[in-house]
Structure formats: structure tokens, C-alpha cells
Write a structure and sequence with these properties.
about 300 residues, alpha/beta, Rossmann fold, seven-stranded parallel sheet, two-stranded parallel ribbon, 10 helices, 13 strands, globular
Length: about 300
């Protein structure tokens, strides 16, 4: 029996990890998040509230459950908010990582620490998709904080893996934040006009696929950096147009705009996208196409 501890279990990826892992007879699951448990299903795992920015709380939880694997999905991911809320961003994206690494290093050397990171650590100027060995050049406070977290892990002696991902979409219980797919579907369904950038390119990632990739890292005891994203890179405009096509919504409501007209606080990389060959070869990672992902969402929304 392997004990897996998941942080950020109330979030999109966290919930998918919980619902995937509770099906397993060979896993004891400890789900942790800030505050109360927001998942509808409460059976089949242990829930513990956890503030990952507290060294003491992290130490208590690790000592109590002695997990074999920690999957750290918790982070501050609101890119624009990070530009002004530096302390909060640093606490969640840097200090929390240091907490886990230091406790594992001093007390529990066996723990496999799997950490989620982002395509935003790159500047987006490569002109093509990124591989794991490309040199980061973060352009926003959020991106710099995630890269700092990565460096803490990469220079530590613990057993670690980093899963980098891009635009995660999906349906969850009691969702507190939306994602680009559901935002576009909701707005277009209501007949609202929306402005969408045509000069940013990404590889949208189905949350279920990302969860399976993280679990494959845990199952195989894999270490190092893995790109875990969707297999198709497209403009954000094309992404939203695909959403309109799938749900037969009015594309004339969509207006293409340039990023520099948005007045966003944080700079975004113009083009990321990942080459996922390493994850495919070493982990058996095989994500759905974007249209297949939308079909899965449609089925889930039908039961909500």
C-alpha cells in the first residue's frame, strides 16, 4: 500500500487526482487544501486542512502520515494578482516549496516529491514548442516565483519530479474559479460578445490527462522534468473558436484582439506549447485531442 499526499485538493487538478486515486486499492490517499473540503465525494480518502506556507503544519502532516509520494498542486496561479500581491505569491510558490523540501530533506528522505510548474517560466520567443531542457526566462512575477520554486527543488538532494503544464481546463465540484473553456462556453451560450487574443499560442491540457501524467510519475518513481500538456498547440482565438464549433455556438460574437490592447498587469509569453515526447516515451502519457477533451467535458456537464 502506497500513501500519496495531494496538496491543493480543492483545485481543478487536485480534485481530478483525488477522484482518480480513490479508485485504487493499492493507494492510501491523503487530500489536503486550505480550509474545508470542497469535494462532493467525501469517502475513500482522508482529508486534512493544510496551510502549505506554514513550516510547522507541513512538518506535522508529513510526520503524521509519512507519505511515499507528495503531489504538490497548490500554488498561487492568478498571474495578474501575483504582480501586486508579492508576499502572497512568494509564500505559496516559493516558501511552501522550501517547506516541503526542507522537511523531506531532514526527516523523510524516501518521499518522492512531485511538483507542478508552468509554461510561463519561458519567454515565449523560441518560435516553436518547448522541450524540458530549454532555458527558462520568466517575464512576470508569477513566472519568476514558479521558476524560483523549481530551482529550490532541482538543487535539492531529495527525490523529485517537476511536471510542467499549460492552460488546464476541466469541470470540478463547487468550482471557485473558471477556466478559459468554461468561460468561453458560458459567455457564448448567453449570447455575450467576447474579445479573444489571437497572438498567444498554447497547448490546452485536459485536467484528467494531467492527473494521469502525475500519477504515472508516482507509479514509475520517475524523476526529473516532464512536459505534461495537450498535444496540440493553437492560438487562444482558435481554442475559443473550437469551443464554439463543438457546442454549435455563434462565432460572430468572438472578436480577435491583440494582447497589448488588454492592459494586463503581467506580461504573457506569446508562444509556448510543449513537445511531450519524453512523457510519452517514459510515462506512457497519451493526452486526448482538444475536441476529445471537449466531449469529455460535455458528458460531465450533462451530469452536473
Amino acid at each position: 500500500m502506497k500513501t500519496i499526499l495531494v496538496t491543493g485538493s480543492n483545485g481543478l487538478l487536485g480534485q481530478k487526482l483525488v477522484y482518480n486515486l480513490i479508485k485504487r486499492k493499492d493507494v492510501q490517499l491523503i487530500a489536503t487544501s486550505i480550509g474545508k473540503n470542497r469535494l462532493i465525494k467525501k469517502e475513500g480518502y482522508i482529508y486534512e486542512p493544510l496551510d502549505i506556507t506554514s513550516t510547522e503544519e507541513v512538518e506535522v502532516i508529513i510526520t503524521k502520515y509519512n507519505p511515499d509520494v507528495i503531489i504538490n498542486t497548490a500554488a498561487m496561479t492568478n498571474v495578474d494578482a501575483c504582480e501586486t500581491k508579492h508576499e502572497e505569491c512568494d509564500a505559496l510558490n516559493i516558501k511552501a516549496v522550501r517547506n516541503f523540501v526542507s522537511v523531506i530533506e531532514s526527516r523523510a528522505h524516501h518521499i518522492h516529491f512531485i511538483h507542478l510548474s508552468t509554461d510561463f517560466i519561458f519567454d515565449g520567443e523560441k518560435g516553436s514548442e518547448y522541450v524540458e531542457t530549454d532555458e527558462p526566462n520568466p517575464q512576470s512575477y508569477y513566472a519568476r516565483s514558479k521558476w524560483e520554486g523549481e530551482k529550490i527543488i532541482q538543487t535539492s538532494p531529495i527525490k523529485w519530479a517537476i511536471a510542467r503544464t499549460i492552460i488546464v481546463y476541466g469541470v470540478v465540484d463547487n468550482m471557485s474559479r473558471s477556466n478559459v473553456v468554461l468561460w468561453a462556453k458560458d459567455a457564448l451560450t448567453k449570447g455575450q460578445k467576447i474579445n479573444v487574443v489571437d497572438d498567444q499560442f498554447r497547448s490546452p491540457t485536459l485536467a484528467e490527462d494531467l492527473a494521469e501524467g502525475c500519477i504515472a510519475i508516482a507509479d514509475k518513481g520517475a524523476t526529473g522534468i516532464y512536459n505534461l500538456s495537450g498535444k496540440e498547440t493553437m492560438s487562444v482565438l482558435a481554442l475559443v473558436e473550437n469551443v464554439a464549433t463543438f457546442w454549435k455556438l455563434d462565432k460572430s460574437l468572438i472578436t480577435a484582439i491583440k494582447s497589448n490592447t488588454l492592459n494586463q498587469a503581467a506580461k504573457r509569453p506569446p508562444r509556448t506549447g510543449f513537445i511531450i515526447d519524453k512523457a510519452t516515451l517514459e510515462l506512457g502519457y497519451n493526452p486526448h485531442t482538444f475536441m476529445e477533451g471537449l466531449k469529455i467535458l460535455d458528458e460531465q456537464l450533462g451530469t452536473k
